[in-house]
Each structure stands twice: as structure tokens, then as C-alpha cells.
Amino acid sequence: MSNDTGKFDLPHDSNIIPTILEPDAEIKFNCYKGISCYNACCKQADITLTPYDVLRLKQATGKDSSAVLKEHTVPFTMDADGVPGIKLRTTNEGACLFMDEEIGCTIYENRPTACRYYPLGNLAMKKADEGHEQQHFILVKEDHCKGHEEDRPIKILDYRAEQGIEDYDGHNKEYFQLILKKKSMGPGVGKPPELSLQLFFMACFDQDRFRRFILSDSFKNTYDLEQDFEDKIQQDDIACMYFGFRLLRQVLFGELSIKEQDGVYQRRLEERKEIIELRRQAEITKIKAKDPYQAYKMEVEEESAKNTSEADKNSD
Q: Could you write out the three-class secondary structure of 129-183?
């Protein structure tokens, strides 16, 4: 077990002391109705949600994903490239909308991942020379929480089982791998196009709308989906979620796992050529207004490159 103290982005402005822990580490913690700080953490909720959390909120509320997003979440950007995420909506004072003063959490059986983990934070770290990430944890100590004063030693592995975290972690894994890969690729990859960011939000969080999208004729004209798979997507929220992760890996990272219809790739190349040419013409027009000579130079260089390319083809 490591006792190294690190610095992390953690919620609230309270006095937090994070410590890196291994999965078999032992902590002292207990939370129950009747403890003096009961509901205190829910009154200053800063809960980032995962796609699987949204599915469980659907189950808890009986609403579709669009209604859950509108009524119970707020969007935020997770990085400088504008990759979208969502947090649990709170009152103006910061209290969770699902908290009841008497009974506590009104969606306890479907509470989000971060709520189940508290007072632990989950860290997935991957070394450059290793093929998989390692799971570590941090113990969060906040002034309002008296659960740390309870004399109940418990191993992190047992605490995770007690809180029903394994099921959540299993379904969250591919999502976090997607986020981790995006971050690990660095700024050299560039900011994803706006349409890709919109697809990310829909596939991850608005699963019912995403389902309608992938079952539409326009999507099926692009991707070759078997009927059995379509039937499963229609009925199974989790299968739909995992398909969304596959599609995002294909769109964002070029990991081809979803078969396209014949001729789609070539048609996309032609469309991209047209878009690039339109952008080039717009750039030249813009430059002409400021520097006619520079615009003329760009056109000459473009024409020269085109002639060279045609000459190479003829020589072959």
C-alpha cells in the first residue's frame, strides 16, 4: 500500500486530504441513518455522471434519457477540446434534488457511481510500458463527514462489494477507456469536429435518441447492421450503450469495428474533397480582401501541385 499524497481535482472547497490506496487497503468508515452528518454530503453534491448512471436514473425515474438529461442534469466540458460531460442537477444551494431530509436518498438503489464510491475516489492509471490500466483509490476526508470517526475497519474490496460498485465499474470501464484514450492522444490530434462532439454527447448520455438515430434509414444506409443486432439494440439499453462506445471509437480514433455498406468509404472521400475545396476557396477569398498577392501565390502553388500530380499519374 502506498502512502504517497497527491494532488487531485476534487469537489467543493473543503479541507480534503487525498491519499493513494491499493485495492486491498483497509479504511475506517461507516455511514448510516442517525449519524450526526446524515445527508451532509448530499447537500453539497458535485456528482459527475457516466452513461451507465443515466441508464440507472432512467430506471429510477421511469423517464426517457432526454427527460432525465433535461430535468436532472447539467452539461459541462471535460477538457479544452470541448468534450461534453454531465453532472447531477442540484438546487441553487447545491443540494441533490433526490435527497429527502427524512429518508435520505430517494433513488438509493439506482444512485450514481460517485455516490456509491464516497468517500473513495477511483483512479485508473496506465503506464506507457503497460498494456492495461491499474486501479487505485483515494480516500477523501471532508470536514462535514463524521463517517471517518466510526470504528468500522473495512477493506476497499469489501466496501466496493457492499456498495454494489462492481456492476457499475464493469459497465463504466469502456467509457473511461474512451476518455483516457482521448486524453492520452494529446493536443496533436486536434479538436474533434463539432458533429463528433454532438455524437459523443448523444451516444453516451441521450441513449434513447441515439437508438432512434442508429435505427434510422440514413444510418442503415451507411452501416451494415444485422437484423438480430437491430432487434437487440431496440430492446436492450446496455447493448445500445456499448454500441455507442464502438461507434465513437470508429469515428474518433479510426478503430473500424462496424461494417460499412459498399461504396460508403469512397463516397465519404469525395464529399471530404468537396468540403476541403470549398474551405480553400473561402480562405483564398478571405486573403484576397487583405493581401491580393498572397492569394495569387496560393492559387499558383495549388495549380502547380495539381499539374504535378496529374503528370505523375500519366507517367505511371
A: CCCCCEEEEEECCCCCCCHHHCCCEEEHHHHHHHCCHHHHHHHHHHHHHHHHHHH
pLDDT at 182: 87
Claim to verify: residue 175 and residue 196 sit in the same structural domain: no
Our count of domains for the chain comes to 3
- Residue 288 grid cell: 484576397
Dihedral of the CA atoms 174, 17, 11, 143 (nearest 10)?
A: 140
* pLDDT tens-digit map of 184-198: 876 656 688 899 999
Whether 210 and 137 share a structural domain: no
Q: Would you state the pLDDT for residue 118?
A: 95
Query: Using an 8 Å Cβ cutoff, are 82 and 198 in contact?
Result: no
Within a domain: 5: no
Q: What is the pTM of this model?
A: 0.77
pLDDT of residue 91: 96
How many Å apart are CA 49 and CA 114, to the nearest integer?
8
Dist. CA 119–CA 114, nearest whole Å: 9
Which residues span the domain enclosing 214? 192-253
Which of 209, 224, 253 is a domain's end point?
253
**Any idea how long the chain is?**
316
Query: Grid coordinates 468537396 are at which residue?
Result: 274
Closest residue by Cα to residue 117 from 53, 181, 189: 53
Give me 14's grid cell: 473543503
User: Terminus-to-terminus CA distance in the chain, angstroms?
Assistant: 65
Q: Are residues 173 and 69 in the same domain?
A: yes
Segments in the chain below pLDDT 50: 1-14
